[in-house]
Write a structure and sequence with these properties.
This protein has 128 residues and is mostly helical. It is 69% helix and 4% strand.
Length: 128
């Protein structure tokens, strides 16, 4: 699905991650939302939580092992939101793909930046 890194061992980011990839995913998620799912306010809740956890990880790097479970819990929250028809399966898949790549605080920072780019493009495609 999504790969953050062009070369994971050297931590070289995928060059189009924050542009083409984010834009394509924003369009895909918007198209899969139908009338009621994937409203910008709903996606914003996930984005805000990612930003909060990223800030927590930056201010408490020694606590990373306790922060990582809360990051992984976002998959469960996305699945719950899907069950309530608030987000689409594509959004859950996006969250899973991204969160499964987070193993250290730098990965979370990449995800937070990707999500920021995604939300910027989503504004273009989303009507609300």
């Amino acid at each position: 699905m999504i790969s953050f890194y062009k070369d994971k061992d050297k931590c070289i980011l995928e060059p189009k991650l924050f542009s083409d990839t984010a834009m394509n995913w924003a369009k895909k998620i918007n198209d899969s939302g139908g009338k009621d799912a994937n409203k910008r306010s709903q996606l914003r809740k996930f984005f805000d939580e990612v930003i909060r956890l990223n800030s927590l990880a930056k201010s408490n790097p020694e606590d990373w092992e306790n922060i990582l479970p809360y990051i992984n819990m976002l998959i469960a929250k996305a699945a719950y939101a899907e069950g309530r028809r608030k987000v689409s399966q594509d959004f859950v898949d996006l969250m899973k793909s991204c969160i499964n790549q987070i193993h250290k605080d730098k990965d979370l920072d990449v995800f937070a930046n990707f999500f920021e780019a995604f939300m910027g493009f989503y504004r273009k495609y989303g009507e609300n």
